[in-house]
Amino acid sequence: MSDVKEFEVDGKDLPLHCPTKDTPLWDAHPRVFLDVAKTGQVSCPYCGAKYKLKPGTQVHHH
Questions:
Q1: DSSP string covering 1-62
Q2: Contact indicator for 32, 3 with CB cutoff of 8 Å
Q3: What is the rounded CA–CA span in Å between residue 47 and residue 27?
Q4: CB of 52 within 8 A of CB of 37?
Q5: Could you tell me the mean pLDDT of each successive run of 10 residues in the chain, 62 residues long?
Q6: C-alpha distances in Å from residue 28, one per residue of 17, 42, 53, 60
Q7: Which of 26, 31, 41, 52 has its CA at 20 to 30 Å from residue 13's CA atom?
Q8: Which pTM value belongs to this model?
Q9: How far out from the chain centre does Cα 40 lie?
Q10: What's the Cα-to-Cα distance from 60 to each of 27, 28, 51, rounded to whole Å?
Q11: Residue of 8, 46, 9, 14 whose CA lies nearest to 27
Q12: pLDDT at residue number 2
């Protein structure tokens, strides 16, 4: 059994950061911004949570 959380994200979730706004305070760590657009997936260096772009997501750079 794995305790690593996995999330599918789309354009409305960008810029992506971990912990997310839905993370309980007791389970939080310092906020880190993650570049999921580069490869389509990324892991948080603090908690190991895995984020993956939903298929077909358009990433708009500012």
A1: -----EEEE-GGGPSEEES-TTS-GGG----EEE--TTTSEEE-TTT--EEEEPTTPPP---
A2: no
A3: 9
A4: no
A5: 82 93 89 95 97 89 58
A6: 12, 18, 22, 28
A7: 26
A8: 0.83
A9: 10
A10: 30, 28, 18
A11: 46
A12: 58
Contacts of 60 (CB under 8 A, 6+ apart): 11
* Confidence (pLDDT) at 26: 87
Neighbours of 44 (CB within 10 A): 20
Given the DSSP bridges, would you call strands 50-53 and 41-43 parallel, antiparallel or unpaired? antiparallel
pLDDT score at 3: 77
pLDDT value, residue 59 = 80
Domain boundary assignment for the chain = 6-53
